[in-house]
Each structure stands twice: as structure tokens, then as C-alpha cells.
Amino acid sequence: xxxxxxxxxxxxxxxxxxxxxxxxxxxxxxxxxxxxxxxxxxxxxxxxxxxxxxxxxxxxxxxxxxxxxxxxxxxxxxxxxxxxxxxxxxxxxxxxxxxxxxxx
Length: 104
Known about the structure:
Blueprint: H1 3-26, H2 34-52, H3 56-90
Helix pairs in contact: 1-2, 1-3, 2-3
């Protein structure tokens, strides 16, 4: 596996992890299940890896698409994921907003 394939698979792996944690933490009833997220990320990584074999421009394009997928997964599921991380690190069940900074 070459460097671009590793990048693509890593981006898609972290996208799937964010999607799974966000989906589980939000406890929303949706038509998308955990298995669907895993299968979608696997197929997406495979197709982008195949696309990356098409040449240098296709490689950059595939890496960019995988990166955009990661960023969108973080933006969509970030609040849920970081809320879970906050609960795990502080032991708190309530989100505590940081105090506003004093000016002057």
C-alpha cells in the first residue's frame, strides 16, 4: 500500500469513527445504522483508493475527497463526540460552558 492509499484509508477510518460515536451519542432514530456507516466507509475507502491509482492528479483528487469526508464528519458529529469525551474525562453528565473572558 502506497502513501496516498494509507492517507485515504486513515481519513476514512477516522470519518467512520466520528460518525459511529456521533450516531451512538446522539441517540437519534434514523434510517442509518452502525453497519451502514461501516460499509459505507469501507466502500468509500476502496473506491477512493482505486481512483488514486489513476495518476498524480487522480491521487490528489482522491486524497482531497477523503479529507473533505473527514472534515464534514467532524463538523457534523463533533459536538456529540466531544460531549462524550467531556463526560469521560470529567465524569460529569452536564456540559459546562467555559466562563467568558474578562476584557479590560
